[in-house]
């Protein structure tokens, strides 16, 4: 097969991919993607939507690290939920330690409040909670 027959489709596919990629970029001067999620932040954080530390820096929940939670009031861990996928039953699948229960995510410049299931359900009363997607959505549903 001549090299020309391979080169032409490759260039065409490259240009098509480039056009699609450019089409997905937000228009110049548009607000950052974070502003798209701004209306939902109060539901996630239970605050005004934009948290600030004492120095006035804006909170970014994705910028942080895992820290050891030495709180003696760690939520009880159970694998008895009938909706829990068998693959997520750590102890029944041979995990010998329970140290994973003592870690939490700590954003760098803000306080991440403990999840309040009652408040979340009250805010969602007469509404719908939708988990869309693939296995990640399924994991979120099972965690809920």
UniProtKB/TrEMBL annotation:
Residues 58-111 form the Trichome birefringence-like N-terminal domain. One of its GO terms (molecular function) is xylan O-acetyltransferase activity. The keyword Membrane applies. InterPro entries: TBL, TBL_C, TBL_N. The keyword Transmembrane helix applies. Coiled coil: none annotated. It is a single-pass type II membrane protein. It holds the Pfam family PMR5N. It is found in: Golgi apparatus membrane. One of its GO terms (cellular component) is Golgi membrane. The chain crosses the membrane at residues 6-25. Keywords: Golgi apparatus, Membrane, Signal-anchor, Transferase, Transmembrane, Transmembrane helix. Residues 112-144 form the Trichome birefringence-like C-terminal domain. Its main location: Golgi. Belongs to the PC-esterase family. TBL subfamily. PANTHER family: PROTEIN TRICHOME BIREFRINGENCE-LIKE 9, PROTEIN TRICHOME BIREFRINGENCE-LIKE 9-RELATED. This is Protein trichome birefringence-like 9.
